[in-house]
Structure formats: C-alpha cells, structure tokens
Amino acid sequence: MEFDCWTGIKIGEKSYIIAEKIRYKEKTSDDVWTEYGLITEDSDARIWLSIAEGGLSCSLSSPVGNKVPKGYRLHDSGTEVVTGVWGDTDASVGDETEYEQYESTDGQETFFVEHWNGRRSSSAGRKIAAAVITADTDMRPRARGMFLRAQLRDLAVNMGSGLTAVAVVLLIMYGIPDFGTRDWHDVRRFVNMPYAQHERLADAPYYAENEEEGGARIYTAHIDAASTALDLIEGVDGRVQDAYEDLHDAEHPLIVRTQTELTRITAAADGTARIVLIEAPPDSAPAAEKLERGYVLMRYAELVRTGDQRGRAAVVLQESPKVGPPSAAPADTASAAAEAANHTAARAPTTPAAEETPRRTRHLVH
What we know:
Layout: E1 8-11, E2 14-26, E3 32-39, E4 47-52, E5 57-64, E6 73-87, E7 96-103, E8 109-116, E9 119-128, E10 133-135, H1 140-159, H2 163-174, H3 181-190, H4 197-203, E11 207-209, E12 217-221, H5 225-235, E13 242-245, E14 254-257, E15 261-267, E16 273-279, H6 287-291, H7 296-306, H8 313-317, H9 333-342
C-alpha cells in the first residue's frame, strides 16, 4: 500500500490530501514503516496516517499534549531513522530520534512520544483497518491547487519585498489558475528561480538520498541510469547546458549539467543507479574531448524544452545531432546504444515538487 504526495486519499468517508510522506526504519532491526502527513481543504493541521507491514498495521492520529493517558502501557520503544522524505516536510534522510509507543488495554488506542532535538512531542490516535484507506481521485485537482499555493507561499518568503512578492501574495489570497507542473516551472523561471535537479531528486519516490560524501550529495535511483538521465532532463524542462556519456571515465557515467548543478549517474549491477550531485564546475575539458561526446541526450533536452509531443522515441528517429552544437560529432556507437535503450523504457512517473516547512510531530506503528 503506497501513495504519492499531493494526491487525494479517503479514510472511510473523510477525504484528505497527502502533503508529506516520510519513510522510517528501526535502527536496530529491519522494521520499516511510512507516515503520511494529511491535510484537508479547510485546514493545514497535520493528521498522521502510519502504515507498516505492507498495510497490515495502520493507525490514524494527531498531535496532543505530552501526558501519557492513564491505563496505557508501553508497547515498544527504540530509535527511528528517516530513510526517505517527500512533500511539504523539513525531515531529512538520516535524521534519527528515540521514540516510545503506548497502547490502551485493548490495543486499539495509541499514544506516540518522540524526542526531536531534545524536545518531547506526542500524538494520540487509533488503529484502523487498511480496507478503509483508498485513493480519492476526485481530490486530485484540489490537491494540485494546494501544492501550488504552498510553492507560491515559499516563493513569497524567499523573494522578500517587491512587486513580484506582492503578486505572489495576491495569488495566494485570491486563488491561482488551474495549471499543471510545467506551467508552475514557467512561473519559477519568470521570477528567476528555475527548477533544479536536487528538487527533482527530492520529489520523485524512486530516488533516495544517502549520506553526503566530500560535500557531494549522493542518491540511489531505483530506476536504471539511462531512465534517470532522461527523468532529470524532464524534471528541469530540458533546460540543461550539457548532457552526455563520459567515455573518458572508466565507468562511462551519464552527465547532466545545468547552470548551477552537475549530476554524475553511474549504472549499478542490480539495475539501479548511483547519482552524485555537485555544484557545477566550469567545463574545462579540451575541445577535442567535447567533440567526442554524443548528443542524443541533448537532442532529447531540446524536445522537452520545446514541448515536442513525440516524446523519447523521436530522438532515436533523428539522423543527425540537429540540436547539438554545430561542431558536435554524431553520438558514438556505445553512447547511442545505451541512450537508445532509454527511449524504449516506460516514461518515469512525475510528482510535484517538494517544499519545506518546520518539522511536525511524527509517529509510527510496528
């Protein structure tokens, strides 16, 4: 049982929007669970849905005071570690904290205690059956609108004063048009805050962030390297400065460079990929080396950037590096073969961009 951020969900007859999603693991065991921060159209106050054991154990709760209810017994305790985050959250992969889980005598009522940064926070709720949890497709347009309002609110904060900030505030107050993710990216570019690769990596549920290495951000992609490169190009609307297979590196990584970021994507034996993201350095490669780069990925970026509806397959049909630099040589055989495989793969799913708000209470069920 898995749901994405900024989609609708129904619990019984009540409809919610998933604004936050956090995946946890017990530090000393293999126990894992997912928590969804739910909001309604009327309130941003979080209600927490915890799902463990593939849906065999579910609970619904909300923040309360820190006093454990009379008659409750300690059911479990330990240390929880964040292994994945999506949506409107301040949690980060690698965060960990101690917790206690209490239950009523009949085991149906729950009380959770966590100790984030030395502060105790609690939530109380009840166990529910997985059968009452369903996707609510009718909430999708409204969920998208709430997602965009959250984006606009953060833009207003980041931009400070000025006419643009005033316009953003007016949009928040009086409503926003019904536009999609691509239109939202256009708004970001208009106010000089274009979408970034690290945001795409935070958005999509098939990317997991790992510990940094030497200042570089490290991710695991649960899709192959070729699909990862295409997905990142799509995520920044094709607005890349370069995208190619580095044949001078023994691992033949795929490189995606924007004005501010560079990702290095290498394939793993199990079909996944490793992503290293750094601040984009100047491209100091010799001109002769640049001429050896294949431009299949760059041709695909052009299709995405111009809104070409033919999709990934159109790149394979092109006979020459039409949108590559005039001096660019055609893609080499190895690069073209690897990249051509991309276009026969299913298009990676897309999800809205994650935004950040102060941390809120989290809880779990084992």
